[in-house]
Structure formats: C-alpha cells, structure tokens
Amino acid sequence: MKVDAYAVFGQPITHSKSPRIHQLFAEQTGQTLSYIAQEVSADAFNSAADKFFSQGGKGLNCTVPLKELAWRYADNLTERARLSKAVNTLVLQDDGGILGENTDGTGLVTDLTINHAIKLSGRRILILGAGGATRGILAPMLEHHPEQITIANRTLGKAEIIAAEFAHLGEVISSDYPNLDRQRFDLIINATSASLNGQLPPLADNLLSEQGCCYDLAYGNEPTTFVRWGIAQHARLSLDGLGMLVEQAAEAFALWRGIRPQTSAVIELLNSERGKTLPSA
Ligand code: ATR
C-alpha cells in the first residue's frame, strides 16, 4: 500500500519538531501517512516542490525562509493567505491544483483563547515587528474584534503599510517604539525575529496593563528573551510559541486529512521534553 506523503521544507530544518508532531497526530487519529523534514533553500524551492508533488506528495508545510515563495507557488489561495502574503501549508487538491493556506494565525489564536483563556475581544493588543510573521497572524486576530491592534516596528514605514492593508478588518494602528510611551496594552505579542538572536526590541517599562499577558511567537528549550521580559513586567502569563506550533500543525493536519487531532497531550509532551513547563509570573 502506498502511504500518503507529507513534508516540511525549510532551511535550517534539522531541529524541526513538525515530523514528531504529525506522527503523534497520525497515531492519535489512526491515520497512515509519512511526514519528513527536508532541507530546501529558497533557490531550490520551486523545483523541490514540483518534484514532491509530481512524485505523489499530498501536502507540504513551508517554514523560514520559504513562506513567501510558497505563497507565490500556490495556484489558489485562501483569503487569509492572500492577505498574509505568506503560506505555511500547501494542499494538493482533487483537480491537481495546489491550495495555499496560512495556519499560523489560527494556531496562535487557538493557543491564546482556548489553551490559555486569554480573551482578545475588546482588548488592546500590541504586536512587535512588521514582517511576514505579523502579516500571518493579523486577520485571525482581528476576527476576534479587539478594541485595537497597534503594530510597532523599528522601521515605521513597514508598520504603516501593514496597518493600511488590514485596516478594513478592524482598528489597526502603526507606531515606532518611542511613541508607545504612556500607552497600556492587555496583550503584547513578539513577532520580531529579535528573540532568535537573544535580542529584544527597545521596549519601555509599564507598557503592560495590570493582568496583561505576553506571547512570543518564537520558542526554545529555555524561556526566550521576550518571555523573560514579560515575567519581569509582571505579566499574568508570559508564554512562548510552542503551543502555536502545535496548533498550526493541527490546522494543517485537518486540511490534509479532514480530521482535527487533539492538541493538549502533544503540547504537554513537547513541553515535558524540554525539561519544564514555562514559568508564569
Ligand atoms: P518574519 O518573516 O519572521 O516576520 P522579517 O520579515 O525579516 O521576518 O521581519 C523581521 C521583523 O523583526 C522586522 O519587523 C524587524 O524590524 P525592522 O523591519 O525594523 O527591521 C524586526 N526585528 C528584527 N530584529 C529586531 C531587533 N533586534 N529589534 C527590533 N526589531 C527587530
């Protein structure tokens, strides 16, 4: 019997947790499939994806630095993927076309609202960074009707462009870091790539409202620099993106297989494997 084949493409990819997550999902739901991680550079992306699908591959995840290329590669895009200009999931359709979807934002929103009971509606939210990661999360967050989302970026122009593109979906404002002064936010999300280098955007103290929460889209074996900042700011919860990783994978799995796996046991397992559950203040 030929097994349905899936893969994640990216560079670097060696430490990807996706094969493990999808294997756990497959066991849990009784699905038979293969899922491998493949190192693919930006230059090689189109030919690698062509080869994968021509050999019978059913679906791909794409991660750094390939999400924009995957967005261009897809024959059809969901509305949220179109706005994101980034795709993390490609799906082979019945007619042979390739559908591009971005499950990152839904993954984040599920982790925030379901796993951690963090309410978004009516809240003041600050997103740090104005790159592809921010584009990927904005539409699903705005569906929850926050009072306002402010996008802060070192390069103000990039934040302005994104704010304008998403303005039809809700109240989206742009700012540089110095002008955040004297504002208070209920939720601060780090969507910069600063964490990966152990750096932090230039954040003032007192940006977080009492009982406010922090969330870093990045994750690691140790709390990230931004998670530590949140704890120092007395965040009610200061979380990293491990839950989002598992939730975005569950969304992709559901698109491919038509069945949504349970995520809590998988998140718990991955958390225990990094030695500890993240601290909250
Ligand atoms: P991604 O697709 O992961 O979002 P990106 O498009 O390269 O990656 O965007 C990275 C984001 O992180 C940008 O918003 C960048 O700010 P600039 O646009 O001003 O360059 C932000 N960033 C990276 N390192 C940072 C740092 N040390 N402090 C603040 N912002 C940082």
What tags apply to this protein structure?
Rossmann fold, 2 domains, 6-stranded parallel sheet, 12 strands, binds 2'-monophosphoadenosine-5'-diphosphate
Task: Please characterize this protein's 3D structure.
This protein is an alpha/beta fold. It has two domains: 4-102 and 244-273, Leucine Dehydrogenase, chain A, domain 1 (Rossmann fold, 3-Layer(aba) Sandwich); 105-240, Rossmann fold (3-Layer(aba) Sandwich). It is 37% helix and 21% strand. It has a six-stranded mixed beta sheet with strand order 2-1-3-5-6-4, sandwiched between helices. Strands 9-8-7-10-11-12 form a six-stranded parallel beta sheet. Helix 5 (104-115) crosses helix 6 (132-142). The mean pLDDT is 95. Bound molecules: 2'-monophosphoadenosine-5'-diphosphate. The site of 2'-monophosphoadenosine-5'-diphosphate (ATR) has 14 residues, from helix 6.
